[in-house]
Design the sequence.
């Protein structure tokens, strides 16, 4: 059993989208190595509340790595130093005892800060609203294997469908590009028969909505893939490029 | 027409323009570098080659094409960079590479800087050589003795250093650009594509640097 440790956290505090934010240091003591990063923030907030201060606002829901609500940039990396994890699945044993840990919100003009570490990610919802669905109501779930899909294709569709929409890809990209997110949302439908009819239009509308929301372009560095808690590969971006280019070629 | 405009000004459209123009310019650099090596191995052949190029009327079409590639690449790149800067107006207090599967390098994060160096270098380079002193070749007064000009220009240590520096920026640009271009065109990321681009870039860098180094240190008595 490892001993409990103390840390200093340097947290971004910002009252609302208009306010100027700043980093504030907090000491947190007696943190179990098995505490998650969010549980460590809970301890800081308990101290803050007891002392009459304003607790640090941060987003979370399931705390089991599947909902995509939590997320902040920890020591300069989205979701912190471990690959393939959300912030809630990052444990304090991954930080050296006594470390100073910098915690910031996702930074993108398309993700305005609501408060402290909470950002407004509804721009990603609007990308999905632009075409990330099948327009026709197909009734309730069909019987399994009613529509035959080869297993390798189904696996590729599922790999893209694992996207939980946390926004780490945008946070990690030097251009604040939503290409990995948009690509994943296009790809999981583009791999399946149901997605074919609207495939070209979907790529076109979703890519152009991402641009209108103020996300940047893709520089093919792959930082997004490296921080993605679901490790979605950049292949979905290249497939999105192909679908988008093809959508325009079809018009000629 | 409006669809062509909206495609070319979209971020994927701009990246496609940069990919195609960039790869074509790398293709040009391969022929340019190969011909440059004649400076070292066959001075008369070098003059004959440059004479064959400039005496062919098609050269004007080729030159126009190269200028169009350069300008198109720059305009698209600059527009994409401006939009990317707007997408993140507030910088991180601490920003580190994620490591793991990331392909981020110093070269990939400084594309606009290496690109701007080329924007300065290429016009100056054309002024120095294409529009530099016109020596007549000893054998035939109609043939330009470009070899002599090359030998003279690279006597200056500052000029040699500027060229080696600029060529390093060029290599850094192509190091990321080659692989990135294929991904922008929709070709799935493959390690071998990135790797062959980096190998080609290394060959280009060595080949281009060979001429100023050869002239200054070996052939030219630069002391």
Sequence:
């Amino acid at each position: 059993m490892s001993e409990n440790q103390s840390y200093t956290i340097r947290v971004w505090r910002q009252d609302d989208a208009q306010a100027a934010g700043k980093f504030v240091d907090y000491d947190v003591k007696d943190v179990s190595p098995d505490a998650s990063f969010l549980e460590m923030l809970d301890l800081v907030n308990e101290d803050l509340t007891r002392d009459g201060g304003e607790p640090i606002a941060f987003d979370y829901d399931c705390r089991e790595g599947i909902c995509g609500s939590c997320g902040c940039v920890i020591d300069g990396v989205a979701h912190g130093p471990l690959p393939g994890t959300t912030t809630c699945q990052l444990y304090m044993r991954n930080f050296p005892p006594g470390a100073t840990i910098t915690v910031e919100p996702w930074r993108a003009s398309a993700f305005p800060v609501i408060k402290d570490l909470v950002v407004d990610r509804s721009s990603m919802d609007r990308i999905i609203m632009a075409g990330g669905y099948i327009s026709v109501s197909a009734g309730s779930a069909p019987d399994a294997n009613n529509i035959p899909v080869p297993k390798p294709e189904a696996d590729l569709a599922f790999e893209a469908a694992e996207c939980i929409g946390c926004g780490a890809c945008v946070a990690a990209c030097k251009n604040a590009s939503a290409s990995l997110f948009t690509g994943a949302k296009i790809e999981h439908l583009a791999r399946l028969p149901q997605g074919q009819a609207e495939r070209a239009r979907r790529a076109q509308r979703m890519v152009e909505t991402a641009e209108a929301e103020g996300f940047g372009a893709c520089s093919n560095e792959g930082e997004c893939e490296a921080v993605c808690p679901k490790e979605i590969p950049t292949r979905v971006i290249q497939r999105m490029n192909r679908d988008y280019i093809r959508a325009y070629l079809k018009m000629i | 027409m409006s669809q062509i405009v909206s495609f070319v000004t979209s971020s994927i459209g701009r990246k496609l323009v940069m990919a195609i123009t960039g790869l074509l310019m790398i293709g040009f650099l391969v022929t340019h570098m190969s011909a440059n090596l004649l400076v070292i191995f066959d001075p008369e052949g070098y003059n004959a080659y440059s004479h064959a190029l400039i005496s062919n009327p098609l050269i004007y079409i080729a030159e126009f094409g190269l200028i169009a590639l350069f300008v198109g690449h720059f305009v698209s790149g600059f527009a994409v960079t401006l939009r990317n800067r707007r997408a993140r107006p507030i910088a991180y207090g601490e920003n580190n590479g994620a490591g793991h599967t990331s392909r981020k390098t110093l070269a990939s994060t400084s594309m606009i800087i290496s690109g701007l160096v080329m924007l300065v270098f290429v016009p100056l380079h054309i002024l120095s050589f294409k529009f530099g002193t016109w020596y007549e070749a000893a054998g035939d007064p109609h043939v330009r003795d470009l070899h002599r000009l090359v030998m003279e220009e690279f006597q200056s240590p500052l000029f040699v250093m500027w060229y080696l520096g600029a060529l390093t920026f060029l290599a850094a640009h192509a190091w990321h650009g080659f692989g990135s271009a294929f991904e922008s065109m929709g070709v799935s990321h493959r390690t071998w594509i990135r790797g062959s681009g980096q190998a080609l870039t290394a060959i280009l860098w060595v080949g281009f640097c060979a001429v100023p180094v050869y002239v200054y240190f070996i052939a030219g008595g630069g002391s």
User: Anything to note?
Assistant: The two ends of chain B are 60 Å apart (CA to CA). Residues 164 and 209 of chain B are 6 Å apart (CA to CA).
